[in-house]
Design brief:
Blueprint lengths: L1 E4 L4 H11 L5 E4 L9 H11 L3 E4 L7 H6 L1 H21 L4 E4 L1 E2 L26 H21 L2 E7 L1 E3 L12 H15 L3 E4 L5 E2 L1 E3 H14 L2 E5 L5 E2 H12 L4 E4 L14 H5 L8 H15 L6
Helix pairs in contact: 1-7, 2-4, 4-5, 6-8, 6-10, 8-10
Length: about 300
């Protein structure tokens, strides 16, 4: 059996769909199925089902403001989830665990493009430190399990992901899903769209279905940390302008009192490219697909 945790989320849904293209016995876990913060319940589930492979995507995730407002909750909840899943995989004979991480865990101020070897060379950016440190602790745990017990692992370090089934929270969510919600609302009501920051910050945005394909490919071929990104950055202003055109909205105001976060994040994807991976959708097509999905599923979307 292949297990995917976090199946209600944007990446978990995409991983489940990607794995089901290639395997028959793939099981997805949502928070409503199993509370992974519960150590005993997690151990009991793994003992009963003995998954051969685990793709661990479950996490408590926020954008800049959510990380700012709830740092202790973010840290403790993710530490519990990650520790319980990794320990259960180790104890009950999992062949390999693919545990999803984030580029937020990289050191602040690292020379671009950031390579996997840079991971431990400093502290993460203050704006995402609690979440980042929980993901760093997961890598330390995986490395310890590998050293002592031989547990094989893959540690995808994912860039900014977005797509269908995202969490479209305008206050605490990530930049793309929060913008999709804002622009859809503005298109329906004729209201103004206020955007945080200056738009100058540059990010590597990746469609979740492309990320899932990259992760499954990498997990089959490699072990250890690997950047999962497109290798191309764009200014957030370009994302805003693209969504404005898709939604047909012209009244956009920038709120420069809100944080931009790190001004640049560019990642070395040479290891991923060596596997032959290339994204299927460019940014404009991926934004269109996400906006269309949101429009078709509104108001039954996660917030």
């Amino acid at each position: 059996m292949i297990l995917v945790t976090g199946c209600s989320g944007v990446l978990g849904q995409a991983l489940l769909a990607e794995l089901q293209l290639h395997h028959e016995n793939v099981v997805g876990l949502r928070r409503t199925d199993l509370l992974l913060e519960d150590e005993q319940a997690t151990l009991d589930f793994f003992r009963a089902h003995r998954p051969r492979l685990v793709f661990h995507a479950a996490a408590r995730v926020h954008g800049i403001m959510g990380n700012h407002d709830f740092p202790c909750d973010v840290y403790t909840q993710n530490i519990r989830i990650n520790t319980n899943v990794v320990e259960a995989a180790r104890q009950w004979g999992c062949e390999k665990i693919t545990a999803i991480s984030t580029v937020a865990a990289y050191p602040h101020g690292t020379e671009m493009p950031i390579k996997e070897a840079d991971f431990w060379n400093g502290a993460p950016h203050y704006s995402e430190r609690a979440y980042a440190q929980s993901k760093r602790a997961m890598l330390a745990h995986l490395e310890a399990c590998k050293a002592q017990y031989g547990l094989d692992f893959m540690y995808p370090i994912c860039t900014n992901l977005f797509g269908p089934h995202d969490r479209f929270d305008e206050t605490h969510g990530h930049v793309v899903p929060s913008l999709v919600s804002k622009f859809y609302r503005a298109a329906q009501t004729g209201s103004q769209v206020q955007v945080w920051g200056t738009g100058a910050a540059r990010r590597d945005f990746m469609f979740a279905a492309d990320a899932a394909a990259a992760i499954v490919l990498a997990s089959r071929a490699k072990s250890g940390p690997m950047n999962i990104a497109t290798g191309h950055t764009v200014a957030i202003r370009e994302v805003v302008e693209t969504l404005a055109a898709i939604a047909g909205v012209t009244d956009v105001v920038w709120d420069s009192t809100k944080p931009d976060g790190q001004m640049d994040r560019t990642y070395d994807v040479s290891h991923l490219n060596e596997l032959g991976f290339r994204p299927k959708l460019d940014l404009k097509a991926a934004l269109r697909a996400t906006y269309d999905w949101y429009m078709a599923n509104y108001p039954d979307v996660r917030r």
